Amino acid sequence: PHTERNNKSKTPNVPQEKKAATAPATAGKAALKRQVGLGSAVALIIGSIIGSGIFVTPSSVFRNSGSIGVDLLVWVVCGILSIIGGLCYAELATLLPATGGDYAYLTAASKVLGRFGDALPFLQMWCYSLVLDPMSAALQGLTFSSYALSVIYPTCEAPYETTVLVALSFTSLAISVNCFSVKASARVQDIFSSIKCIILISVIITGAVFASTTTRNNFQGEGIFNKPESASRLVLAFYGALFSYGGWKQICLIAEEVTEPSKNILRATLLGILTVTAIYVLTNVAYFVVLDSYTFASSEAIAVSFTTATWGARAAVVIPVAVSISTFGTVCAGFFSSARVILAASRQGHLAPIFSCITVHSSTPVAAIMLRGALALGYTFIGSISYIVEASVFLDNAWEMAVLLCLFCFRRTMKDAHRPYAVPLPLAVIKLLVSIALFVIPLLRPVDYVQYVVILAMLVAGGAYYTVFVVFAHSVPGSEHVTRFLQKVLVSAPCTNELEIMLKEKM
């Protein structure tokens, strides 16, 4: 304490803006660098959205929509909803360009709720960063492994041990790439996003060439705009398409590392989502041009059926390779962006201090990336965890509702703060109503209660951790020594809490 008082007495009277700029150096801390440009930000959004979904889900969306016209309308509407959501998040991310996304906005809003106001952002982080997100990474790893091994085992299923081993190797590679440096991670996103676009554009071009050489027209007839069997089937169609659009808000997780965030976050959001929407709609049009309605609805691997009908049976091996490449790009994007939530939570005291450290030379949150990686590798051993997808979609809508309420809250608590962009109020209301509908409808007629049991278990475990380690501030014996040791090994230093600096200036 005596030393701290002496240090404080020697601190010059510096203006707030200069204090924020010099705080990392004077406090022995490091700061995240703004080194993700517009191109890499767009690549991150495209890479996060385009995964294996567009190669698999179109069949289920078509079955539930009931007709070609309604199916294409669903894909267009989901793209528009994603754009509206992106605009809402762009206002938040440009107002508070800090690491963490949903967690950061909920943390900012919770400041007015008193001592235990941070319970909500903590539970959001707990469910997302420690359970759903690494489980999703594990599922993507197993998906990559299954498709990659289908080339080697074309007539039978690959051994389970082999599938898990390949998934572990693949996930470890993604971890290593993202631990190297931020620039290397961004470069990987640029490459894989370009490859994904090239693959899907080749599908679109193939459909256009096929349309010019055939006399069959699947877009004519009375049944092109048939009504879906029921409203619940239409909702399922929207769920399938929205799942394929998931990932559009990943840019908000790394807002603290985007160059010129007041301009580039909005631009990247619009360019990324518009590009994916155009590609998704045209890809589905290409599928409908080549395949008849029965084949489209009955195929569980629509891209394989498309390739077989156009390029021949031998060329169908291209699809597993394409899906593997697409999935690997998505996992790399996930490690690049989602690990930042762990960093943000550690800076707020919700996780161990080591996870708030970044490397001195490259400003990479290696400890946070390694935690996400360790969880993903551990969940990989569980095997099939596809049921977690439903819980993920359900909770995602719940947190989106809370974040949209934060948007309205900030317009009152930060009404004088500079806003580089403000979403039109009607669009924000539309997005909120859609999120409420997607949250409430599954509760009215639940098909399976497993997801709700999983969610309850997550919340109970999170509540126990919050009570012991946050409210009562208990720590594991020897944790300080472990933190110092890991800091030396990883050549890391604590990261400046930019969110707190921003809130002091704007609230």
UniProtKB/TrEMBL annotation:
It is found in: Membrane. GO terms for cellular component: membrane. Keywords: Membrane, Transmembrane, Transmembrane helix. GO terms for molecular function: L-amino acid transmembrane transporter activity. This is Putative amino acid transporter. The chain crosses the membrane at residues 36-56, 68-90, 191-211, 231-248, 269-291, 311-339, 351-375, 387-410, 422-443, 449-472. It comes from Rhipicephalus microplus (Cattle tick). The keyword Transmembrane helix applies. Residues 1-26 are annotated as: Disordered.
